Each structure stands twice: as C-alpha cells, then as structure tokens.
UniProtKB/TrEMBL annotation:
UniProt xrefs under PANTHER family: RIBOSOMAL PROTEIN L25/GLN-TRNA SYNTHETASE, ANTI-CODON-BINDING DOMAIN-CONTAINING PROTEIN, RIBOSOMAL PROTEIN L25_GLN-TRNA SYNTHETASE, ANTI-CODON-BINDING DOMAIN-CONTAINING PROTEIN
A Pfam family: Ribosomal_TL5_C
Residue ranges annotated for the Large ribosomal subunit protein bL25 beta domain, each copy included: 97-177
Domain of life: Bacteria
Protein role: This is one of the proteins that binds to the 5S RNA in the ribosome where it forms part of the central protuberance.
Organism the protein comes from: Arcobacter defluvii
Residue ranges annotated for the Large ribosomal subunit protein bL25 L25 domain, each copy included: 2-87
A Gene Ontology cellular-component term: cytosolic large ribosomal subunit
Molecular-function annotations in GO: 5S rRNA binding; structural constituent of ribosome
Protein name as it appears in the record: Large ribosomal subunit protein bL25
Gene: rplY
SUPFAM superfamilies cross-referenced by the UniProt entry: Ribosomal protein L25-like (SSF50715)
InterPro entries assigned to the protein according to its UniProt record, in alphabetical order: Rbsml_bL25/Gln-tRNA_synth_N, Ribosomal_bL25/Gln-tRNA_synth, Ribosomal_bL25_b-dom, Ribosomal_bL25_C, Ribosomal_bL25_long, Ribosomal_L25_dom, Ribosomal_uL5_bac-type
Keywords recorded for this protein, A-Z: Ribonucleoprotein, Ribosomal protein, RNA-binding, rRNA-binding
Length: 178
C-alpha cells in the first residue's frame, strides 16, 4: 500500500517546498466525493507503480484508505521528471472512464521484411465499472505483415465495456521502414 500525506496549504510556495523535499503533488477525486490534495514521496510512488499488477491500487492518506486509478500525470518537458498526478477513486458499481494499457505478444512477420512494429494507441479509453475492468489488452501480433494493422473494431472486449474511440483507429501495426 502506498503511503501519502494530505496537503494543508495550496500556495505556490508550499508546493515548491514539497517538491524540493522529494514529494510528488497529487489530486484525488471521484464522483460525488470532495477533492483531496495529497503528496507522495516521488521515488516510492514510481517504484510502487512499476511493481503493481492491477490498474487500481490502494493509497493510505492519514489512516484513510482509498482505491485509486492513475488518470493523468504531468512531466517536466526538460527533465522528464514527474511533477503532478491525478488519481481517481475507483468506486464500486459506478461506470467511469478508464484507460487500459495495450500489450503485444509474439514477433510480427513483417519485422523479417524490414518492417517496424508501431503501437499507435498505448492506452485504450473505455467506460465500465471497476469490477469489470481488465488489467490490460493483450494483442497477438505474430500474423501482422508489412502494412497490416489491428484496429479498435478488431479488439474483443467484454460485453459491459464500451470503447468510445472510432472503430477505424489503429491500435498496433507494422509499417515499412525507410
């Protein structure tokens, strides 16, 4: 479980002080809930996210345990250092928007023909409840040749999960190398 603190002051100076001390600024929100301004130790947060196995994870803020999902994050354009993260509370039975990561398996045929495997859509936006949320979308790319794509309409998602991208959007494809 990830430990964090609740921020008391929202001033620019307080935020700078927290960042200097190695904290990552976070916003935690949910449907019908009051927003919580929090901070996590940056290195602990990154280690925790790399080792988690599900999209939803628990955070402890001053004894209050919440199940959250990373919705969005901001990085410094120069140093690529993580600056801010938005966490959404995963409420049971409430249909909300999530972004499911795409993973590929196998080696595409087109790679032998001087092609490049391109993951066009790294995270697929879907709308469902937290109970029905899959951890990732795994695609087998072994049969993809140069010029072939797997589109949104080719994905097999469970019944109660709605994807609101255009069905013609490519997820993974093999392009010809120049």
């Amino acid at each position: 479980m990830l430990e964090g603190i609740i921020r008391d002051s929202m001033t620019k100076q307080a935020t700078k002080t927290l960042r200097r001390e190695g904290y990552l600024i976070a916003n935690i929100y949910g449907k019908g809930l009051e927003n919580i301004s929090a901070a996590f130790k940056r290195n602990e947060f990154i280690k925790f996210l790399r080792n988690k196995e599900t999209l939803a994870f628990d955070v402890n803020l001053s004894g209050n345990v919440l199940k959250v999902v990373v919705q969005e994050y901001q990085k410094c354009p120069l140093t690529s250092e993580l600056l801010h993260v938005d966490l959404m509370v995963a409420q049971a039975g409430v249909k909300t928007s999530y972004k499911i990561p795409v993973k590929t398996t196998g080696i595409a045929k087109g790679l032998k023909n001087k092609g490049l495997l391109m993951v066009h859509t790294k995270r697929v936006p879907v709308k469902c409840t937290i109970e029905e949320l899959p951890n990732n979308i795994t695609l087998d790319v072994t049969n993809l040749d140069t010029g072939d794509n797997i589109l949104i309409r080719d994905l097999t998602l469970p019944e109660n999960i709605d994807c609101f991208l255009d069905p013609r959007v490519p997820v993974v494809g093999v392009i010809k190398a120049k």
